[in-house]
Amino acid sequence: MQMILIYLVLLTEPSAKYIAFLCQDLKEDENPEEKARKHKEHELKPMYKELLYTIAHKMGYSSSTEVYTDDQLHQYIKEAFTMTESEHSSLSEKVKSTEPPVYCLMATVKEAKGILGKDVTGFSDPYCLLTILEDEEESRTRRSRAKPCKSVVKDAVSDDKICQTVIKKQTLNPIWNQTFILEFEDITGASFHLEMWDKDEEVSLSQKLEDIKSNFNSLRRYCALSAKKEKGTDDFLGNVVIKLKDLPCTEDNWYNLEPRTETYPDRGQCHLNLQFIHKERDGTLSAGRSAYINYCGILQQFVQAYISKQKSSAPWKGALCGEAETLLEFYATQNDLSPFLQDLAKWVAYSKLYQSLEVDSSLLLQQLTCIEYHWHQQELPYQQKQELGDSLHGFLQYGLCLVAKYRDIFPPTSSATPKLHTLLRILVQICKTQPFQKLNPAQFELHDGVSDAIQTGTEEWFTIKKGLHQPMTKDLSEIVSALSRLIGEVQDDIKHNKDMWNRVFVSAVQVDVFTVVYQKFDTLLAKEVRETLSLIEGQMEQALANSLFTVYLSLQAIHKDKAFLQKRGFLELTNFQEGFREALPYWLNQAFSTTQDRVERAVQVDQLQPLQSGAVPIKHSSSAVDLVACIQPICHLWEQLSWPDPEEAFMLMVKLTEDVCKIVVTYCQILKKRVRMLSENSDPGSAINMLCVVVNDLEHLRTVLTQLPTQLNWTGLRDRTQNVIGDSQFHNTLPSQLQQAQDVLGKEIRSALNTLGKKLNTDIETHVRSMATRRRIPSKSTEDAAAPLMRYLEQELKYMNENLVQENFNSLLIPLWENSVKSLYQVATNHSHQEGLMVFCQRLLYTLQCLEQCFHAEGNGLPLNSLHSEEYKTLKGHLTHNSLSSQQLVEKFFKRKIREQKEYSGEKYGAVTLLVSYRRSDQRLRVEVLNAVNLLPMDSNGLSDPFVQLCLEPSYIFPEVEPRSTQIKSCDLNPLFDEAFEFLVSLDQCQTPGACLVVTVLDHDTLRTDDFEGEAFLALEDIPGVAGGKRGVELNSLADAAPDQIRSPLMHPKPNEDAILRLLESRKGERETQAFVKKRRLREKQSQEGIQE
């Protein structure tokens, strides 16, 4: 408030008085009523009398659209100045007793345009005569005239009442800018007269002849003018006559020049400024006060009165009521206050009101612009110059004081910050104006001034806040709490400066207030923190450390804001963390113990039930969710600390990871205790359900642990510690800690899953064994035999799938599948009865297929690559093999033989050449045996007696086809047979899978069994005429194919290595099968494979 009072004096008094005011003591204890009385007596009443005097002696009318009577004006000023009726009457009487002023019209002849050219040159030498004629003078002049005359002014009054401008030579657009003051007594009948004349001066004859020579047209004009005018008289150019009662109090206008005795359509125009003023105004009204000072006071009083009547809280934008505008115009006009002085008065008044009332800042900008304009147009009196300089300088200092207090005066709101911006613009505008630069010669940089004000204000603000948060006692916890509150205030202030105020200062004065404030706070806070930490050194305890943590977090947040600084330099808070090293272990211990307590409480209230069922089930319990929430603060602690030292940060990460792992292990232990306690009095179904929930809890926790490196940003820590921590040390520490916790979780999950899987495995084995108890079950009962097992699995697996998360369900499926395959394999291989083996294996194979579908679950269960293990492949092969019928086995046997024949290379036992074809026209298979080569010598003479036997196999496909044989070729190892055979067989028979021509070469012996030379197998589907044909096609639809010559090497079977024969051999009750086996065993017996190398 004292600053505002000082500035008010600054604006209203010269500099010397201002300095004297600063030196005197402020009488703050003075009675307010007495001060108001003195103010009214010494300030308001003199101005009130001036206004009464102005109304009593007003001339003309105002520019206001509405005309006000004297009574209306009296009523207005009485309300505006809060005068009582008695005071008004008393002051009115005093004004009536004063001397009236001298009424004057101040006329300024500015210029003229388009006037007549009266000289021979086509130009004129114009000048003006001005006077005011009262009614009597004008009437007397008219009566005294003998005849009409152009001149009025010259003849009407004496020369001392006539004013004349200077003569402007040879122009039709003269410019004078001359001002004259014309006195008059009564405005009612008075008129303003202006006559414009062309000066006619005597010139020499030679000069006139010279002008005539230069312009022939001038000769005619000269003759005409000489004929009309009297010698030596001036030429009349026109006049302007205005009744004073028709004039406003001030007017600036162009007037037409009118003729008097002759008529010209256009005589041009004259630009006049007319204003009613007072001379010899009574000086007792406001003794010692200039009209300018009174105008300032009246304006201020009118504005205050207007604002006090307004109901809106919006800033005043410069509007006044009509009475006020009228009175201000009359007063300024009567006292001849120039527009410059009026704008200066408005600036002074508005700048004073700005400090106490809601005044729109744009008004100040507008007045500064006006002052800047007038400064270049008009010279101010010395006293007003000094006042203007003091006002600008004073408002600048006042504005800087407001800037220093910007936090309190312009809070960070959408309504206040624009006001700060406008104030700064005003300060910028002041410094840019010529009056300020001329009247305040000392160099002043606004940028530096604003920066200094901000720093000063910031330090004062910090001191005040520090005092408000001063600890009440010397207790260390209270001291730390006080520091924490102070830093919190600073943190908020920095945020406001960064987010709100900085834009204002940068855009207005290019001052980065955030940087200025931040650097100042950095110094102030660093000092406070050092002093506080020095008091705590060696006295650390948990409660004190907890209080310091808040301080640390606030400083950390402030320190991070340095990224927004425009200018980087040394900051005293750069290594502030070092002062908190003693408190760090307490913070870690607090986080660990708090988290562990929360985990224990979470498990104690956990009923081990899934959190949510339905379309999107949540299969873990509440404690798992609580545990994750409990671990998050530890991870958040790492982010909050942001420890700068890389090596210490690594050790800090090791500690935090270790704490998380400890909490996880502790959770596993207390969760096991909890499930045991709840299972004691529960039924088996509820116990299994709770065990499923526990497994899900552990799996959920394992997933959370997997994300821990990302949450703690191990990658960023690795980058920071590359120069101080080796890769091996880093990876052998943190990942190993996490892996140990993961191993504990995995072990607990496997243990729980094994408990769940034991009963399932036992039941599966029971169902599989029950399928092997019956010795003979017809094939049609295969599905019925597997149905109990499948129903059981479907029920149990559905239950487990509903109660276990997918990861745990898959983990349970894998051992169940392996055990199921193992049980089936044991039952299949331990079947001691060969009788009914095929049907039994068919049943087991069907069961295996059902199990595979069940565990795969159309892609929702185990993947096929997990199901198709080596044990599965072995079991499936065994069951598939033993499930085939005898005919299928024989077919499979010949398919294998055909494949072996195609893959066989070399002619170890010789070869046979055939020419084969099939005629579809008569369904005949033609085989022509051409020769055999390189046969083995089977007789004692080193030769053989070979013949070839042709047989169509399998026999059940060709039951009516007899074997055929060639003639015997004696003593020949390369016999030439050249014999043809035809077999009557259908195309469908030939195209049956496994159908083949068996070519056997034998050595004929008379007394004993023929010796075996070798055999070859030719697939009928490869013979020309059979190949490419389709079943059901008419026999004659295709032409007979050309025969194909085939050379087939002879083979010998390997003895006792054929599993198919062994399986067929076990089927004793099938006579045809046993005959086939006997025949093949004979060939094996005769085979030299493995004997002859």
Automatic annotation (TrEMBL):
Q: Name one Pfam family in it.
A: C2
Where is it mainly found?
A: cytoplasm
Q: Where in the cell is it found?
A: Cytoplasm; Late endosome; Recycling endosome
Q: Which Gene3D superfamilies match?
A: 1.10.357.50, 1.20.58.1100, C2 domain
Q: Which residues form the signal peptide?
A: 1-16
**PROSITE patterns annotated for this entry?**
C2, MHD1, MHD2
Keywords carried by this UniProt record:
Cytoplasm, Endosome, Exocytosis, Signal
A GO BP entry is: exocytosis
Q: Name one GO cellular component term.
A: recycling endosome
User: Which residue range or ranges hold the MHD1 domain?
Assistant: 549-671
Report the residue ranges that make up the C2 domain in this protein. 85-259, 908-1034
Extract the ranges annotated as region (Disordered). Answer: 1069-1093
MHD2 domain spans which residues? 783-893
State the InterPro entries in the record: C2_dom, C2_domain_sf, MUN_dom, Munc13_1, Munc13_dom-2, UNC-13_domain
UniProt-recorded name of the protein: Unc-13 homolog D (C. elegans)
- Classification lineage: Eukaryota, Metazoa, Chordata, Craniata, Vertebrata
